[in-house]
Amino acid sequence: MQVTRELFNDVMVPNYSPASFIPVRGQGSRVWDQQNNEYIDLAGGIAVNVLGHCHPELVKALQEQSEKLWHLSNVYTNEPALRLAKKLTDATFAEKAYFCNSGAEANEAALKLARRYALEHFGAEKDQIIAFNQGFHGRTFFTVTVGGQAAYSDGFGPKPAGVDHIDYNDLAALEALISDKTCAVMMEPLQGEGGIISPEAEFVKGVRALCDKHNALLIFDEVQSGVGRTGNLYAYMGLDVTPDILTTAKALGGGFPIGAMLTTTAIAASLKVGTHGSTYGGNPLACAVAEKAFDIVNSKEVLEGVKQKEQLFRQGLQAINAKYNVFSEVRGQGLLLGAALNADYQGRSRDFLVAANEEKLMCLVAGANVVRFAPSLVITDEEIQEGLARFERAVARVATAK
Ligand SMILES: *Cc1c(COP(=O)(O)O)cnc(C)c1O
Q1: List of long-range contacts for 241-244, beta carbons under 8 Å, 24+ apart
Q2: How many Å apart are CA 141 and CA 108, to the nearest integer?
Q3: Among 3.20.20.150, 3.40.50.720, 3.90.1150.10, 3.40.640.10, what is the CATH number of 5-55+300-401?
Q4: Are 387 and 380 in contact, with CB atoms under 8 Å apart?
Q5: 306 CA distance to ligand 1 middle (Å)
Q6: Which residue out of 15, 137, 149, 261 has the highest number of ligand 1 atoms within 8 Å of its CB and is therefore the one to mutate?
């Protein structure tokens, strides 16, 4: 069968609009398409491929587990899931883990747990969920409603109720809205999809204090910011604030689908036998790969490398900006960086993405005004330099076409 990009339009639901080329293999931070063109990958599968493509240790973990056991259902537990849960809870504030297959599912579990916990401990009146404008928490109907972009949640009929939004970094707005009827506050400790927006230190501390005052649970959605992305194992570790529930996915499986919700024993107690579940959640194949990815990422070498590589990116992007004057700022943390377009290029992040593809570079956008980079955490310095050289040519294309 001949597989072409046109076939996508024939056989796929039109909710995506993929690039004109079809990647067929990858190694480290390089990817090749059907015509054997070589791309530098600074997108990392949208902050997923935390160890690049086909990392030999992940390939080995997958192959070994694939010859032992793939799936049993949660009628049985399995060794890789238990080992991964032990490692995640040892390395974080959490004492209990729940496994699922994606970020949205982890957040769905977190929100359901928060509602159940509030109901059991404080009664049915305590059901308000407060979240933030421009936040992103996934595409199930509950999580997309909690996300702060109405454009994503409108048009599907009546939404789950009891969800309110305020501006990120606006502590006064939270203070005005939160009450003893608030069940949970959900936030990203670094907004990803919303434009790479860092929280102010005082804001996060204030959110924690207000949650404590009103017995509301603080849920950190670390689906994008977690697993070494910011140079901390989880972003909360660099903020001096501990959430009650943390969700993690994307990078967790290094490219194999898995998500997890982490929490304390006391809160976890509200998800009693039969209250929630997932057929595939915690399957041995996903957990074996995630365990290996976690072991590699949770090392001084990789986490400190992220901070060094961040400097290379920042210097490179500043140098490009000095020549072409296209960015107002480079923001974010670790290897989750956003180059925000200045007033002359508002609304044009896609143009930079398309130009990058033409220069054989993969990168991302975060909204219409930010070009986003979320590469492998073990990308080599040489791959960064080559990627930035291609990005400079892409910027030149857009700037001279103006
Ligand atoms: C990507 C993302 C999600 C959704 O994850 P899926 O695996 O696509 O369901 C949720 N929250 C944040 C912060 C994300 O970046």
Answers
A1: 241/204, 241/205, 241/207, 241/208, 242/93, 242/208, 243/93, 243/218, 243/219, 244/211, 244/217, 244/218, 244/219
A2: 9
A3: 3.90.1150.10
A4: no
A5: 21
A6: 137
Q: What is the pLDDT of residue 326?
A: 98
CATH topology of domain 57-297: Aspartate Aminotransferase; domain 2 (3.40.640)
Is 27 exposed, middle or buried, given 0-12, 13-18 or 19+ CB atoms closer than 10 A?
A: middle
**Predicted local confidence at residue 400, as pLDDT:** 86
Task: List where CATH 3.40.640.10 sits in the chain.
Answer: 57-297
Spans of the chain, pLDDT less than 70: 402
Chain region(s) in the chain for CATH 3.90.1150.10: 5-55+300-401
Q: What is the pLDDT of residues 68-114, one digit of tens each?
A: 999 999 999 999 999 999 999 999 999 999 999 999 999 999 999 99
Please choose from 149, 152, 223 the residue to mutate so as to test ligand 1's pocket, defined by most ligand atoms within 8 A of CB: 223
Q: Which atom of ligand 1 is nearest to the CA of 138?
A: 4
